[in-house]
Design brief:
By secondary structure, this protein is an alpha/beta fold. The protein is built from five helices and seven strands, in the order βββαββαβααβα. It has one domain: Transcription Regulator spoIIAA (2-Layer Sandwich). The strands form two sheets. It has a five-stranded mixed β-sheet. Strands 3-5 form a two-stranded parallel sheet.
Length: 120
């Protein structure tokens, strides 16, 4: 059963698309797939998209969610876009370190710092 309710809160500000999650736990495969599709639609509508994924209030992230982030990152690169992650809970950040994804993604402590890091 597919729900049409968005899993994301989206805010566009000065050419940056900021995405926050409505769920504290991003674990369900169907929700993760929907999140991936929603983000793809957002970035495909822009030229050289700048995407900020803000993890405020996210407590748990599954490996499937990490896979979706990698897919989003690859899609952005193919569009000559940029991706920043921010506000990642310290426990979740440890998963990024263990999987070495902290080397793949540009991660910032706050959304403001992430927003300021985008190249023109």
């Amino acid at each position: 059963m597919r729900t049409s309710e968005s899993r994301l809160k989206v805010k566009k500000d000065g050419g940056v698309i900021e995405v926050q999650f409505r769920d504290r736990n991003i674990l369900d495969e169907a929700n993760i797939q929907q999140i991936g599709e929603e983000i793809k639609t957002l970035i495909d509508s822009e030229q050289k998209p700048k995407l900020l994924i803000n993890f405020t209030d996210v407590d748990h992230l599954s490996s499937a969610a990490l896979g979706t982030l990698i897919t989003v990152n690859n899609r952005l690169r193919s569009l000559q876009g940029q991706l920043r992650l921010s506000n990642i809970d310290p426990q979740i950040y440890q998963v990024f370190v263990i999987t070495k994804l902290n080397k793949l993604f540009e991660i910032h402590e706050t959304a403001d710092k992430a927003r300021a890091s985008f190249k023109p």
